[in-house]
């Protein structure tokens, strides 16, 4: 005899006897001192990431209340100069399910702890490709897209628009340099040309001088179809818009951007998620919020399907072909079994609207079109998932 239970993913057929499942999740955040920028208009909210995790927890509890599941989320913030490993060891004594909001080296330090050998760790903050390749770990799953997934999405859009000749302006911060590298890789991958590059090293106050300085700076970039900006720290890119010598579209870190999530995503039921998040946090959902939400919801989906709180059981299911996450992006999402990256569409947006959702039509793959975004299996040097 079965009873029908309504849940977020649809209808769940449950037996009359459901075993209770108690699950504890620990969210660990390593605070990072932000580099100085020309403007302080975009200071990140104090609960960035954590708010998404809490909305995901509420979604899990909505379903779990019918299925005998109980979820608990603990949060710990670590100061920039403190060692994340100490807090991680304490968390691992209580649970084998961690959500880590930290730079890549701190993430790897946690993953390599003896207590983390059987853990499932979700990366919601580090976009570096090496974490999905030579520096991958078998106990890390990535709900945040890699930089390469974002730049591949942009490259597909540029191909579609036939903006073949490009120019690049990159900042000097390590995050800017890394993003510029992925832009070069993606444009080459999709047959586009970056003909001219310049490095932005101004220390003048662009808030007053942009209209004079930016046209001069961009005058010698030559003729191009679109200008790529690598400014992941949010420093100078905003002042380039509408101040270039030539009237050309701006994309990359500013203008038309490829993101994990944005408040302008409203299709495929996303408006419901946006509304729940705004009611909870009093602001729009950002990329790190979405990555944290997806991590918590992945756990909830795996618990619902396996009826287990065992980390090894959950990990096996999460990276299997059976797992699917309804992520409000137009198609089911799942994890790449060979490096732990969550396959997902990438919104291409400007501040007021969604322009496209990559992968775009016509970009084909033998497995799934989602694998046209980011490192494909032959390109990845990850061995941890096959050992």
* CATH class descriptor of the largest domain: Alpha Beta
Proportion of residues in extended strands: 15-25%
Poorly predicted parts = 1-17
Would you give the CATH topology of the largest domain?
Answer: Rossmann fold
The rough form would be described as globular
Oligomer: single chain
CATH superfamily (homologous) name of the largest domain: Response regulator
Number of helices: 10
* Rg on CA atoms, Å: 21 Å
SSE map:
Layout: E1 2-7, E2 10-15, E3 21-30, H1 50-67, E4 69-78, H2 84-92, E5 97-101, H3 104-111, E6 120-123, E7 140-142, H4 147-161, E8 165-170, H5 174-189, E9 193-199, H6 206-218, E10 226-230, H7 237-240, E11 250-252, E12 256-258, H8 270-281, H9 287-306, H10 311-318, E13 346-350, E14 353-358
Parallel strand pairs: 3-4, 3-5, 5-6, 6-7, 8-9, 8-10, 10-11, 11-12
Antiparallel strand pairs: 1-2, 12-13, 13-14
Helix pairs in contact: 1-9, 4-5, 9-10
């Amino acid at each position: 005899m079965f009873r029908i239970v309504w849940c977020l993913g649809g209808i769940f057929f449950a037996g009359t006897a459901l075993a209770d499942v108690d699950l504890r999740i620990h969210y660990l955040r390593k605070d990072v001192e932000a580099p100085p920028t020309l403007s302080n208009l975009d200071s990140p909210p104090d609960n960035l990431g954590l708010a998404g995790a809490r909305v995901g927890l509420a979604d899990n509890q909505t379903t779990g209340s019918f299925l005998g599941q109980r979820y608990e989320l603990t949060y710990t913030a670590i100061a920039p100069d403190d060692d994340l490993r100490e807090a991680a060891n304490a968390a691992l004594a209580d649970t084998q399910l961690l959500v880590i909001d930290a730079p890549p080296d701190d993430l790897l330090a946690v993953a390599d702890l003896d207590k983390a050998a059987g853990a499932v760790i979700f990366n919601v903050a580090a976009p570096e490709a090496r974490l999905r390749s030579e520096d991958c770990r078998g106990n890390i799953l990535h709900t945040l897209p890699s930089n390469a997934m974002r730049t591949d999405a942009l490259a597909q859009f540029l191909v579609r628009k036939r903006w073949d000749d490009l120019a690049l302006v990159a900042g000097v911060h390590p995050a800017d340099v890394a993003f510029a590298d992925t832009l070069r890789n993606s444009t080459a991958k999709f047959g586009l040309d970056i003909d001219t590059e310049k490095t932005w090293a101004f220390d003048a106050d662009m808030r007053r001088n942009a209209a004079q300085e930016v046209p001069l700076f961009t005058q010698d970039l030559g003729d191009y179809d679109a200008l790529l900006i690598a400014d992941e720290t949010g420093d100078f890119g905003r002042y380039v818009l509408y101040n270039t010598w030539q009237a050309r579209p701006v994309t990359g870190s500013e203008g038309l951007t490829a993101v994990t999530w944005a408040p302008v995503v409203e299709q495929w039921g996303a408006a419901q998620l946006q509304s729940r998040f705004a009611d909870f946090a009093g602001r729009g959902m950002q990329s790190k919020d979405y990555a944290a939400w997806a991590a918590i919801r992945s756990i909830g989906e795996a618990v619902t399907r396996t009826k287990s709180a065992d980390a090894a059981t959950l990990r096996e299911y999460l990276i299997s072909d059976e797992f699917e996450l309804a992520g409000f992006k137009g198609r089911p999402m799942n994890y790449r079994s060979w490096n732990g990256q969550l396959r997902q569409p990438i919104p291409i947006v400007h501040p007021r609207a969604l322009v496209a959702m990559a992968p775009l039509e016509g970009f084909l793959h033998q497995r799934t079109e989602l694998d046209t975004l980011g490192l494909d299996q032959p390109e990845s040097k990850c061995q941890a998932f096959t050992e």
